[in-house]
Write a structure and sequence with these properties.
single chain; about 120 residues; mainly beta; Nuclear Transport Factor 2, Chain: A; 4 strands; binds zinc ion
Amino acid sequence: MRSRYTAYILENEPYLLTTWDPSTRPKKLSLDENPVKWLKLSVHSYSDVDEKSKTGEVKFSAQFLDKDHLCTMVETSRFVRHGALWYYLDGLNEINREKLARNGNCPCGSGKKFKRCCLIK
Ligand SMILES: [Zn+2]
């Protein structure tokens, strides 16, 4: 899961697709069409593995910047195990979007003004 988050940061689409279960995998991802800047991942909990369906759930939240909005996504992802490896199955998420002031402090923690730092124009 953390490796998939890293892959989102690096826009590593091949990795995201290979770690996606074939039953729900999209044909392609186009992360560069809507570039966002990922700020933070917090994993809240893992469920026990359901031995029958070989699935497990992870609850996490992730923060990212989408242009001038700070977005907080809370998601429950389902993963399925094939052999020793886990694959992303699907997820339910809610995204809270908060508009940021251009002259305010950048949420990345640099201490700079948002407009001089991470604001994606
Ligand atoms: Zn910044």
